[in-house]
Write a structure and sequence with these properties.
Helix 3 packs across helix 4. It is globular and about 50 Å long. 34% of the residues lie in helices and 26% in strands. It has a domain of 132 residues: P-loop containing nucleotide triphosphate hydrolases (Rossmann fold). The longest helix is centred in the last third of the chain and has 14 residues. Strand 9 and strand 10 form a beta hairpin. It starts with 5 loop residues before the first strand and ends with a helix. The chain has a six-stranded mixed beta sheet with strand order 6-7-8-3-9-10, sandwiched between helices. The chain has a four-stranded antiparallel beta sheet with strand order 2-1-4-5, with helices on one face. It is of the alpha/beta class. Bound molecules: adenosine-5'-diphosphate. The site of adenosine-5'-diphosphate has 10 residues, from helix 1. Adenosine-5'-diphosphate (ADP) binds next to helix 1. GO terms for molecular function: ATP binding; ATP hydrolysis activity. Keywords: ATP-binding, Nucleotide-binding, Transport. This is ABC transporter ATP-binding protein. It comes from Marinobacterium nitratireducens.
């Protein structure tokens, strides 16, 4: 199959934990600029799929190609370097630093002889921090300490810390959990805006949010692909109805 238009091509992916197949012969393809949402009941394998893509868990079988580069043989930091950013459920921001400093610290530093903690307050960094702060609705709070931000603002800050690194694929695990309705709307706006030049892979349970962002939905069940397509299509798929009514 021709793969040049896919940012991500997952083929025949499997992983076993002590003989239990958490992901079982899974294939799916994400287009450049697409927002793909993965849904499925608890234990379906959603988090494990993201763990496999970012290199945290190693596949037992199958292939994961990101812009035609095979990720299954790469280490976690090499995958980040290749352009895959992953946000976990709990924000890992520096609470005692400002919004500006959190974003600045995430700026890719290369292999400077000055080491990782060298601050490079040059124009390029300041411009990028300002651009990202606008995107994540925190432009007016650049000098606020992160611990004073609301839960939603902390989540946006962490998305911003990934955007500073310009990933071509951004992976988010339940990004709107615990957010207010207004914050959910703004998060949808944020994701829709950033996919002009990148793709997003999201695990989500909130169906209103899925409707607001998903270009296509992949439904997992017991580690396998159960259904795929528009939200409308998968919602009406009898296999999906059966699994969700059964839980
Ligand atoms: P989901 O995110 O869809 O709720 P997970 O990917 O977290 O599902 O888990 C899928 C299945 O794999 C679950 O049954 C879980 O207990 C199991 N699992 C996940 N990670 C591990 C692990 N490191 N060791 C053993 N079992 C695991």
């Amino acid at each position: 199959m021709e793969q040049k238009d896919f940012v991500l091509a997952v083929e025949g992916l499997s992983v076993s934990f002590d003989g239990f197949k958490a992901v079982n012969d899974l294939s799916f393809y994400v287009d450049e600029g697409e927002i793909r949402v993965i849904i499925g009941p608890n234990g379906a394998g959603k988090t494990t799929v993201l763990d496999l893509i970012c290199g945290r868990t190693k596949a037992t079988d199958g292939s994961i190609k990101f812009r035609n580069k095979e990720l299954t043989r790469m280490k976690e930091h090499q995958i980040v370097h290749a352009g895959v950013g992953r946000k976990f459920q709990n924000p890992s921001i520096y609470e005692d630093l400002t919004v500006f400093e959190n974003l600045e610290l995430s700026f890719p530093r290369g292999h400077s002889v000055f080491g990782a903690l060298t601050f490079r307050r040059d124009k390029q960094v300041i411009d990028k921090v300002t651009e990202v702060a606008e995107m994540i609705f925190l432009a007016d709070l650049l000098h606020q300490r992160a611990d004073l931000l609301s839960h939603g603002q902390k989540q946006w800050l962490e998305i911003g810390m990934l955007l500073i690194q310009d990933p071509a694929l951004l992976m988010l695990d339940e990004p709107v959990a615990g957010m207010s309705v207004a914050e959910r709307k703004k998060t949808a706006e944020l994701l829709n805006r950033i996919t002009r030049d990148r793709s997003v892979l999201v695990i989500e349970h909130d169906m209103q949010f899925v409707e607001d962002i998903a270009h296509r939905v992949t439904v997992l069940h017991q580690g396998r692909l159960l259904s795929e397509g528009s939200l409308e299509r998968v919602k009406n798929d009898p296999k999906v109805v059966e699994v969700y009514l059964g839980h």
